[in-house]
Structure formats: C-alpha cells, structure tokens
C-alpha cells in the first residue's frame, strides 16, 4: 500500500464494527457468546490487516477492551496508537487508530453542537415558508477530532485535522407514544425525525469544519459512517460541494478554502466501474461510509500536499446478514505525498 512505500504517504480508512461488544455483556438487547466474540474479533483483525491504513476510524464500538483485543489479534498493538472519546466507556461510540510515524498531537471531542448552531426561523411574509424551530443541540454520536502529525517530517508536513464521525442513521426513530393515530404513521414520522436529526448534525459538523478550514492552509479530513450518499443533501452540507476539475484548461479546483472533496466521487471519475457501495438498506446499495478531504489532498489544487491514488472498498459480505462480520463495507483511501510545484 502507499503508506508502506514512503512514510510521508498517508491512508485513511473507515470501519463500522457492527456492534462490537465484549462477550456476555449486553448491546441493546443482545449478547455475544465467547465463541461468537472470538469469531468477530478474528474477522475484524483480518479485515484490519487488508486495510493497511495509517488512520482508521471505527464506529459501533461498545468497549475499549474490544479494540485492544482486535489489535492484539492482528498483531498490530505496537504499531498503532488507539484513541477513544473518553477514558470511561459508557455506550456505543466512535474510536480511531493512528499508525507510526504518524502520531496524535492533540485530541478533542464534540458532543454538544457549536454554540452558533441556530436552526430556528421566525415567521416571514415572503410566502416561501413558515416558522421553524428545531430543538436539537448535540450529536447522537460524539465526534472525535484528532490533530495528527508526522514524527519525522514536522518541518515539511503540517498537522492534519481528522474528524471521526457517525451521523444519525436512516432507520426510523422509535416513537414512544400511546396515541393510536400517531402509531399508524410511526415509520413515516420516525424516518422524518431521523432525517431532521442527521441534517442538523451535518450542519453542526460543517460549522466545526469551517472553523478548521476557513482562511487556513490546514489539511482536514472527515472519516466515518455519515449514513447518506455522496449526492445527498447531508453530504452537500458537509462538503459545501466544491467543483471538480473536468478538463485540462479549466482552473477549477486550484483554490477551495473551505470545501471538502468526496473520495468516492474522485474514484468514480477515474474508474470504468459503477458498482461501489458500502451499505444496503431496503434493497438500495450506496456509499454511506466516506472519506472527505480538503484541497491539500486534491490533485488540481495549488495547495496540494498529497495526490489521490485510489479508494478501495471491501463489501462482498454486506448482503450476508452475518453479525460476526459487518453490515457495512470497509473503505480505505490512499494518498501519495506530492506537493504542488510553486
């Protein structure tokens, strides 16, 4: 892989662990036996070795010990630094692993939305819409933000801000209501609530990203299960839809201060295949596990530090409905260190 040939190259992966929990400990209303747990750890360890990524974002982790066991099973515990949202675990959450010579310089977590998130709109006379008051003030899954640096090239390579995210799923929110009229429509209402929450989380994440990106040359990456496709409104909010350069004479992409490029789109633009997907929901296959990158990772940017090599997806098990594997494909993206010439 690219990261092995040159230590300045870098790769990012996202890995949904599908409710990885210790044996005989509840996750929701389920438990794993010791045999099931060992099988899940073994499959996850083999997948981790295939990824061979420098920065791995994990979702649906229920215990710190599970991730420790996973890296021991893969014989990688000495190569990576494991990062968690907090020392005392409390529920399903994201986590990350960073491989040497990359190292974690600082860590931050975001559970509450930034204070300047305002999803209220007073009544107006413009005839377009009515008042709106959305009272969502925190992420359903805490966002983990890591600042990572290169141990041996600190003068040449700036720290990279990495946001590990798991946004609200498309599954309908369960409505705890005794109202029979509402019960008849709970799937529609529950789906609407999940969509509203995911959209609010996307807006809050975008504000965090704008604060990191705007008027800086800081490399920024978002990695994780964003529970929506590359062309969805959710992704449009997060990325701010930077234009891609489509022909040589174009100057599009030379500068984009705050946008993020979707690597699944970057891969499809250079591929003859159109079968990429990481998840199937009600028969619809799409990429909902993403790596989004700032202009420092875009080939045509004047501020480029890394060139995109490829995105790879492992997904042949997704349709098996096997709790010992995952219900998400695993995504890894690779970048060569290749600064733009002055």
How is this structure best described in words?
With 342 residues, the chain is α+β, with helices and mostly antiparallel strands. It is built from seven helices and 16 strands. Strands 3-4-2-1-16-15 form a six-stranded mixed β-sheet. It has a six-stranded mixed β-sheet with strand order 5-8-9-10-14-11. It has a two-stranded antiparallel sheet with strand order 6-7. A hairpin with a 2-residue loop joins strand 12 (279-281) and strand 13 (284-286). Helix 2 (34-51) packs across helix 3 (64-73) and helix 5 packs parallel to helix 6. The protein is globular and about 65 Å long. It starts with a helix and ends in a 5-residue tail after the last strand. The mean pLDDT is 87.
Strand order of the largest sheet: 3-4-2-1-16-15
Shape: globular
Count of helix runs: 7
Whole-number mean pLDDT:
87
SSE series: HEHEHEEEEEEEHHEHEHEEEEE
What would you call the quaternary organization?
A: single chain
Q: What is the first-to-last residue Cα distance?
A: 28 Å
Helix content: 10-25%
């Amino acid at each position: 892989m690219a990261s092995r040939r040159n230590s300045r190259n870098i790769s990012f992966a996202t890995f949904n662990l599908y409710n990885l929990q210790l044996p005989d400990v509840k996750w929701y209303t389920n438990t794993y036996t010791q045999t099931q747990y060992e099988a899940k750890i073994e499959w996850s360890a083999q997948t981790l070795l295939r990824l061979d990524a420098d920065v791995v974002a994990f979702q649906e982790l229920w215990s710190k010990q599970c991730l420790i066991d996973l890296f021991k099973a893969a014989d990688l515990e000495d190569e990576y630094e494991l990062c968690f949202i907090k020392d005392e675990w409390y529920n399903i959450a994201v986590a990350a692993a960073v491989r040497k010579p990359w190292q974690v310089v600082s860590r931050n977590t975001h559970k509450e939305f930034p204070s300047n998130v305002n999803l209220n709109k007073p009544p107006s006379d413009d005839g377009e819409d009515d008042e709106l008051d959305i009272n969502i003030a925190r992420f359903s899954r805490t966002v983990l933000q890591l600042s990572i640096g290169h141990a041996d090239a600190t003068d040449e390579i700036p720290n990279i801000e990495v946001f590990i995210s798991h946004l609200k799923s498309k599954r309908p929110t369960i409505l705890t209501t005794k109202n029979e009229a509402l019960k008849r429509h709970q799937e529609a209402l529950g789906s609407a609530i999940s969509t509203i929450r995911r959209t609010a989380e996307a807006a809050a994440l975008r504000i965090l990203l704008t604060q990191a990106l705007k008027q800086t040359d800081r490399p920024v990456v978002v990695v994780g299960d964003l529970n929506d496709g590359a062309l969805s409104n959710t992704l449009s909010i997060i990325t701010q839809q930077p234009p891609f350069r489509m022909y040589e004479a174009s100057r599009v992409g030379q500068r984009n201060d705050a946008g993020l490029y979707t690597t699944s789109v970057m891969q499809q633009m250079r591929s003859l295949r159109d079968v990429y997907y990481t998840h199937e929901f009600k028969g619809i296959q799409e990429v909902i596990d993403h790596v989004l990158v700032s202009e420092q990772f875009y080939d045509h940017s004047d501020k480029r530090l890394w060139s995109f090599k490829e995105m790879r997806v492992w997904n042949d098990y997704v349709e098996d409905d096997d709790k010992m594997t995952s219900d998400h494909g695993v995504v890894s993206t690779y970048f060569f260190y290749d600064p733009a010439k002055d």
